[in-house]
Amino acid sequence: MGSREPAEPMSPGDAMQNSARPADRHGLLKHSREFLDFFWDIAKPEQETRLAATEKLLEYLRARPKGSEMKYALKRLITGLGVGRETARPCYSLALAQLLQSFEDLPLCSILQQIQEKYDLHQVKKAMVRPALFANLFGVLALFQSGRLVKDQEALRKSVKLLQALAQYQNHLQEQPRKALVDILSEVSEATLQEMLPEVLSTNLDAMLSCPEQLELFLLAQQKVPSRLKKLVGSVNLFSDENVPRLVNVLKMAASSVKKERKLPAVALELLRLALKEDKFLRFWKGVVEQGLLKLQFWPASYLCFRLLGAALPLLTKEQLQLVMRGDVIRHYGEHTCTAKLPNQFKFAPEMEEYVGTFLEGCRDDPERQLAVLVAFSSATNHGLPVVPTFWRVVRFLSPRALQGYVAWLQGMFLQPDLDSLIDLSTSSQKKAQDASLHVPERAVFRLRKWIILRLVSLVDSLHLEMEEALTEQVARFCLFHSFFITKKPTSQIPETRQQLSLPLESQAREAVSSAFFSLLQTLSTQFKLAPEQTRGGQPWTYRLVQFADLLLNHSHSVTPVTPLTAQQHQAWDRMLQTLKELEAASSEPRAAAFQHLLLLVGIHLFKVLECDLLGHPDLHQKSWGERRRGSRTKAIDPQEPPWVEVLVEILLALLAQPSHLIRQVARSVFGHVCSHLTPRALQLILDVLNPETNENEDDHVVVTDESDERWLKAAEDKSEDGENRGSDSEDQSEGEESEEEERDGDVDQGFREQLMSVLQAGKALGGEESEDEEELGDEAMMALDQSLASLFAEQKLRIQARRDEKSKLQKEKALRRDFQIRVLDLVEVLVTKQPENVLVLELLEPLLSIIRRSLRSSSSKQEQDLLHKTARIFTHHLCRGRRYCRDLGDRVEALHGQVAQLVEQAGRQPDSSTALYHFNASLYLLRVLKGSTAEGRVHETQEELEAGTNPSPAPEGPQAAGCLDLNLAMRVYSSALSSFLTKRHSPLTVPMFLSLFSRHPVLCKSLLPVLVQHVTGPGRPHQQAQACLLLQKTLSMREVRSCFQDPEWKQLIGQVLTKVTENLRTLGEAQTKAEHQQALSSLELLNTVFRTCKHEKLTLDLTVLLGVLQRQQQGLRQGAHSTSSSRLLDLYWQAMKTLGAPQDPGGGGCCPHWLEKKDTKEIPSTTQSPISRKRKKKGFLPETKKRKKHTSEDGTPAATGGSQSSSTGRKRNRTKAKVLAQANGTPTTKGPAPGTPTLSPSTPAKSPKLRKKNQKLSQVNGAPGSSTKPAGQKQPQEVLPKKGVLDKSSPSTLARKKARPPLVIRSPSLLQSGAKKKNTLRFTISSSKK
């Protein structure tokens, strides 16, 4: 930087306190610290901080407009323009601009002169040229940003000359000065521009076309002062054949300059406007853009063409749009969209989407241009697939007329694909591959039709609220017709038959259309549920589609289904229509609406599934309207449990048994309508399916059927066989052979062995020792033996195969049941998500936990894992962590309390922590329900007990007392669990479980803390004691727990914890096992947490015993200092000792950790150091072996060095000596003080001039007991100076009159912090008590 920045090397506070500076060269002491801090905040990287500091600086200067602060502020900001930090220069420039804008009386010429004088380019050193250049540039920019430069002609001319001079330093500033010059001249008036134009614009055409800035100046003059420009350079045709290559080079340079900013250069947009103004757009687009920039094969130039295309859309007519949108630019954009697929590649599609959205939003009154642009982008295809996504958010800006035209174009292209009218493109890799299969017309037609049908569905999804009802119905009818029907001949009654397919719709394409239709059906059914008044007559969209399908079925001479319906299916369809007509009169009732919705969805899915079993189910029709007719005559037997809900649940379970994803969606949708009317019996039907005990031993009534079950079982077999085949490919052949051998060995039973032995004995094939000399068997005997063996092994093979088939059947049935349970969990998820306040949700805890327990035990197969993951997700995220829960329990309070106890007991009996966590979370969920719920009986009973005075337990106050939770019972339950956790050797409970309990229910934590503190020490195992310390450490840091304690209770608790920790630390350094070592670590961590709590809460506690215990264990820690495992222990030990104020033992070797070795000399006064000033200590540190030893006199007083006895350094040196000696007396050296001699706290400052005479006495306190002027047991009078950072609230006279305190006391930081700025550590008062 050109010159030294004032006050930047150090803070203003240090500048005022540092007495080593001989004189105040910069006048810092004249200004307040608040004023000087503004300039520090201005240079910070946070934008909010910079803006706030600038605003505060302006307010400060407005209050003192004539003071010296204004001169200093200008000098400081000008200095900041050339600082070495590049990020700080724009900050100072912006602050200077705001200052000049607020104070218009400051002359700009004077400011510019100061900048030029401070950063003179001719006198600056070579190393400081770059900061000086940027200082001049940012200075001019500050003048321009103030808004006053264009009004001051003299300053404007000087600034322009300076920018022209700066433009020569392109190595440092590049094109920034010329850009700034263009920006300034674009704001001046026409008269000023006419005067200055000869000075800034070159008359040579080659120079004008040499860089983008010169060309931009030319275009600016062409726009504002064309007559003056014509006089200077004459008539210029920029778009001539000679100038087109120059324009291409200039635009290439402009594209490179904005490569990082990713924006359109202004010169390119001005050229486009000039071409449109001179009616030379076609020449500009073809010559400069398509034939020039695109041919460069330079991506920044290509991106410039894309941005130019997006910016040109609002400026072009319909004919020009059609010309541009079918050119090379859109083709090149399509290639980029197809190739930019990787995550780290730059994608221009979002930016183009913004351009198109801005264009469509700006021309809503011109639907023809909107339609032209949208059709053009949809026509750019890669082998039939358009490059724009099916879901494009820009369609929300389409006018109704343009949207209707776009839908008509999509439908026409679907029916009669015209590949010649599309812009087909191929990527470079596709061109190199030359695969003939990619260029097949059928493939392109299929890709195009699939995209079109998805685009139609996405239009309804995104615009169903703004879309006209007729247009929505048109799209839905179009999708339904081409999913399941074929036109035989056109008819006027069905508009969909007027246009026939030019190419037949293949089965694969029809499958894609049907899938898109059912997605659209889901959207329409949701829309009707949210806004039923938007449909005609209030009818659901599904009902209108069913009517359209019935119309198509009745016109069999014109339309035929893709798969003709059988007579039974026709009968089921007609019966469904009849039931719908009867339900239409009572559609407002929940039962009628639910059955109507179910019938409609199942009826439409008939065309896809082609099964009429459920559609013709008698309960589906009888229970839907038969009960309604009976209900009008007689009353229901049990109005609380209407049977229609149970019937509907049974039907939904039957639907879920089908292996169809569409039917699964139907069941979810219908159950979402009726889950608010669910009854306990209906819920029990669902839980019976999820109950593993019932399903393992009994055949399920839904899964096991005659024909359908065989079909579903076959589908499951095929699915499992495919999975086995896929999995077997990755296995080794040897493993398969070994498994087969093991199976063969396992299939051989004892009965087969006996039969084999009998056959061999009958054939005399078994010879013993006596038969060695006998003759061999004859041929006939051998043949008979072979036949017997063959028949025996054939029977055995049949038995083995039968057993395998039976085992395989059982496994597949089990897999089928697991798959069915996964589907039934959809209903549970819908209930928990949509009706979390329902009291029936509480009945789901035990079944879900049962599934989790069983799946965790046997989660080997993929189905078991899927079932476990889905159950755990529903249980954890939707149930336990849900924001809504049941608040009206009624008479379930007692049962829920028992369930809480049962869940906690089960959690403690689980084999592992993962299973116990779910049970523990379930108990916490019930606690939240009980805490936030209301029960009339419970409240009434509590009020009676309070009035009668029979309730011995005091009720908690505040928000914790709400609800019907029995705190005593909950405390007993969790106290038992906590004791088990802290005493049991292998407990499944963990620390995070109890931390979750304490954070959610701090009132329980208050009752459980005594149990926790009790287990910190005692006869327990070291591992459990370490767990207790860890849990207590985390608990003491919780704000929720602290809010439940009064100040005396909290202080008493902290004292109990310190007592227990002190007892644990008596064995510090004696750990022999890993558990004991972990116990020591946890104890020290807990101790440091207690220290932080005491400092924050400003507590006063006796720490004498603790300090003595820690000091006695120092020798044991020093012996194990070189162990790797004890490094953390040493760090924690010295952290505690540092907090207590105990100094490092110089003979301790490596016991002191590294952080204390570096900071101890600054923060903790050492008794062995010589009284030298801080400035001398900053020069470095000597090792212990090189330090000079202090000579001790016979009376124990350290002898002062020669330097300390010299009095030639004056009064300031004596004051420093007295302060250091007073601090050194806080800890005894070789010989301690006599009994009863008071010891001064290290925090006692000795800086006041009134205490100079006392300092001479204080320096001999340790060696001369009789020198004290106060009797034993009293402290020396303290006088604390009011400095910043000191929170002292007691006066010195009050402290002097106080009696002696215990030997070592933690005091509040407000009383014990030192007055020095850099000493913020907690201090302790050391004194002797009078016995």
From TrEMBL:
This is MYB binding protein 1a. Residues 1257-1277, 1322-1331 have a biased composition (Polar residues). Residues 716-729 have a biased composition (Basic and acidic residues). Belongs to the MYBBP1A family. It comes from the Eukaryota. It is found in: Nucleus. One of its GO terms (biological process) is cellular response to glucose starvation. Residues 1-21, 716-749, 940-961, 1144-1331 are annotated as: Disordered. Residues 1173-1191 have a biased composition (Basic residues). One of its GO terms (cellular component) is B-WICH complex. One of its GO terms (molecular function) is RNA binding.
